[in-house]
Amino acid sequence: MGKLVRVNMTKKEINIEPLPEKYIGKGGRWLTSMMISDEVPALCHPLGPNNKLVFAPGIVSGTRAPNSGRISVGGKSPLTGGIKESNAGTSFVQKMARMGYSALVLEGLPEEENCLMLKLTVDGGELIPADDLRGKGTYECAGMIWDKFGEKTSFCLIGPAGEAKMAMAGIAFNDPEGRSSRYAARGGLGAVMGSKGLKAIVLDDSGAPGVEPKDPEAFKEGQKKLAQAIMKHDVTKKGGALNSFGTAVLINILNEAGGLPTRNFRSGVFEGAAKISGEALAEAAEKRGGAGMMGHSCHPGCIIHCSNVYAREDGSEHVSCVEYESAWSLGANCGIDNLDHVAELVRLCNDMGLDTIEAGGMLGVAMEAGLAEFGDGPKAIELLKEIGKGSPLGHILGQGTQFTGEAYGVTRIPTVKRQSMPAYEPRAVKGIGVTYATSTMGADHTAGYTIAPEILAVGGKADPLSKKDKVGLSKAFQQTTAFIDAAGYCLFIAFPILDISSGFDGMVQTVNAMVGTNYTGDDVTRIGDEILRLEHDFNLQAGIGKEADRMPEFMTYEKLPPHDVVWDVTDEELDAFWEK
Amino acid sequence: MGKLVRVNMTKKEINIEPLPEKYIGKGGRWLTSMMISDEVPALCHPLGPNNKLVFAPGIVSGTRAPNSGRISVGGKSPLTGGIKESNAGTSFVQKMARMGYSALVLEGLPEEENCLMLKLTVDGGELIPADDLRGKGTYECAGMIWDKFGEKTSFCLIGPAGEAKMAMAGIAFNDPEGRSSRYAARGGLGAVMGSKGLKAIVLDDSGAPGVEPKDPEAFKEGQKKLAQAIMKHDVTKKGGALNSFGTAVLINILNEAGGLPTRNFRSGVFEGAAKISGEALAEAAEKRGGAGMMGHSCHPGCIIHCSNVYAREDGSEHVSCVEYESAWSLGANCGIDNLDHVAELVRLCNDMGLDTIEAGGMLGVAMEAGLAEFGDGPKAIELLKEIGKGSPLGHILGQGTQFTGEAYGVTRIPTVKRQSMPAYEPRAVKGIGVTYATSTMGADHTAGYTIAPEILAVGGKADPLSKKDKVGLSKAFQQTTAFIDAAGYCLFIAFPILDISSGFDGMVQTVNAMVGTNYTGDDVTRIGDEILRLEHDFNLQAGIGKEADRMPEFMTYEKLPPHDVVWDVTDEELDAFWEK
């Protein structure tokens, strides 16, 4: 049975207790959202003593199920003011699960400012002074952690942005080579960790008991079905779209569809798209050689390998990895078509501990406010560095897109619930707009990725420009996603399981075999819905009601080229999302 | 019958139309809140094309009724995101009413940035280029306006903060001597005016028809009853508390009661209170002589004269006026006990076009964040000047208390609905806390001044430390206040009319005689309640629900010296405020 680690940062006490009955069989987002709902007052200050930060492996994390290495982090978000779950792919979660820890809860605030590190072993935990890491970038810290604790440890940590409690700060987890590059990025949970005076968590899994499914045979069978589906689907197979070009394969596709937000959402087409595309990344990896590579993976057990390492012209490593979202946010959205500039911006985000989506959204708004010209990469780099300096400008930019817009009186701010929109124009792809508007997380594509049928013809086909049936579509996607986030699977298994029913069955079977349940496909929807409503209730109590389930006003009256479309899903249609 | 002036800033068109039927007989806050509710989409961007700014004289403004020279300005607030009415005492309103203008509505946004001035005469209006005023402080602009249009004109204008669309920006109206010192300060309406590209409004009332009550005899009688009550009451009479010491007479009184928020609401007692008190102001006026004076008034027809002019050591004018709220916010709340520093901070606020309450609240939080030491007047002056410079730091500070706290991760932010609390500690004076929490305006003492019975023994007596019956008390005060704000009377008539029933009757009688109604005392409550619910409905539609009717979390767990009290009014008790 799993254990629950409670770390009280006021008393500097660590307690390890059996996982309470009600949480058994839960995991990932299901567990973090339950615990936050149960233990955090919805109206508390996100950086105050009553917020908590919960880390939870998914239900099947730590097993050999493919792509199951996602960790969920939950808390009340300093960015949105609502509940937040943010997840990342990393060996950290696999170690944590194998050590028998079902959840880790950080609570309380230190009475004096300090900088500590939490070290967890199978025998318990220890808070260690980490003053040598204070104020340092995540790359340097990651190196210091492996130097000190060995390369077999896994870790997570925050950068200077999290220490400064900025709402754009994420939590970095190690990748297989020890880079601090896998992010639970969204919603400012790094600031919550910073408010608690914790710079890093290190896991030493020596002697870990490992995880054993309740029904190992059935598990193996489910695992096989899922793996086969992943390896068969065009999007996820070896040599498929994601494997060959990374997630940035989407740049040209969205640009083609007129749905690639460009220059702070002024157009759906970017003339420089090809230069920052997945194809361009693959070409650079090929041409420049050296450290550059496509087909990198974020955690052991991944069989998709959509990550990459981007190399400088001389072949030395620049950054891992340039995702679609980052290439878009720091590229097209800023009018920047230079991959080296984009890579440097990503590297800075990783090092300072920032969400790249929020960073690019923020830079777009900063450009709109006149702080830089659209397309000026070097100036964008300069602006981003202000965050690390902690200058007044850095304190504006570090709080994100909405905040930066407000500081400069900008009316075109592409956010929902104060969270920056990702790389899909909601006016041109209505279903994803419904997801942005209604998600409990704020604007978030991963909450209900209707792009699959709207753009990629995966899981059916839907006209992106039409709003017809999009509320139902988004709802179905959000429900299933919540279940996947609970299971600990990478969201990209959605592509194969949408199209290949044995893959879906395999996914459900692994969960059932793991915890001894008999969930059916209907249960996936039911449980997903339960998670969403739990989160929605928290938000309602936090004062985030249906009036926050709205697109930014400018999208309702400003026509987006090239389709000259506005956001036309009505308030009533959106409100139907939460009807039972 | 009154006229309605519509100024479309997109088309640069001015239309003068008869006041629509439904608005006849309304005025001040009643009229602005009705028009905003009717015409402004609750979820619009406050600085976008769909917000409007409404100026409306009170029902009896322009008459000879005592202290009736208050103008209401309404709009959707860039600070709170909710509806806003902010009012000021000035001859501007008297001229506007006598010219026959019942309301002036600014709508639309200019397509290109520009800086215009609106000149209104009895014959119509004209938009005039005002590039010579652009970026200039309000004092210099005020002088230029009188130089150009003559000293018989009245005006209102915004400072550099309003032009930069900062959420702390107010709208300055002229005082009798042409100072830009009478502010509709709260809620950032100056930023709305700035977003519309309007720097100033000038009124030339040559040939104004004047206002005539429907029943002149009854009006005169009511006016007399009210004037007699004002002149009889200890607080408002000639040589009384307000006349002798200004509103700052409250400094020592609140300090004595342990309710003077000190150093960002860390204590209810300020050891330097006496040095920034009304008594100290009066002493300085006496000692320094020259321009300094107590008993100044904000508009002709005021018979209380609570304003003042503060002189420098050499007798030259420093600023008018040092109000209680300003002496507190820029004094005690910042730990500053030097009146010359306080006066300079007030002067800077007036010149840049800032709300002094929000400015002092912001400085307190900035000091909490470590940007200055509490008590450091010169550094506070330096910080405030950043706003005028438009530096990144200025763009933080200019957005107010909540924003500044968020920029620096501060958890002790004394705001409600993002608006800075005024000069009364809600933990030590519970009734005013209920007003802060429930007011549609955000934290606002003028919305329901329960200080009268809780501290001043006016209108009965109530224990400030007890929460008993305070929701009902605040409700009664808020209802009556809304009526007074509709009538156009100065809120200070509340002192005499609470204690002297003929004064109350006189107030109601002037309104009835003015517009031909038969309102009774019950109607005062009913109409006040109607106004409040209209505003509340707007806020609900803007997503500001009961979860926003709350005190900052820290006040619920941090004990306030010297009484060691926390905020203990429950959520349920607060929610009862809006029950019918």
Structure, described:
Two copies of one chain form a homodimer. By secondary structure, chain A is of the alpha+beta class. Among the domains of chain A are: 3-203, 4-Layer Sandwich (Aldehyde Ferredoxin Oxidoreductase,  A, domain 1), CATH 3.60.9; 247-425, Orthogonal Bundle (Aldehyde Ferredoxin Oxidoreductase Protein, subunit A, domain 2). In chain A, 39% of the residues lie in helices and 15% in strands. Chain A is built from 23 helices and 17 strands. The first copy, chain A, has helices spanning 28-39, 91-98, 138-149, 160-163, 189-195, 216-232, 241-245, 250-256, 278-288, 324-329, 339-352, 356-368, 377-389, 392-397, 401-407, 430-438, 451-455, 470-487, 494-499, 501-515, 521-541, 554-557, 571-575; strands at 3-8, 13-18, 52-57, 70-76, 83-89, 101-107, 116-121, 124-129, 154-157, 171-174, 180-184, 198-203, 293-296, 307-311, 317-319, 415-416, 419-420. Chain A is globular. The model of chain A has no long low-confidence stretch (mean pLDDT 97). Chain A binds chain B through residues 41-45, 47-50, 164-167, 191, 194-195, 391-393, 395-396, 399, 403, 406-409, 411, 541-548, 550, 552-554, 557, and chain B through 41-45, 47-50, 164-167, 191, 194-195, 391-393, 395-396, 399, 403, 406-409, 411, 541-548, 550, 552-554, 557.
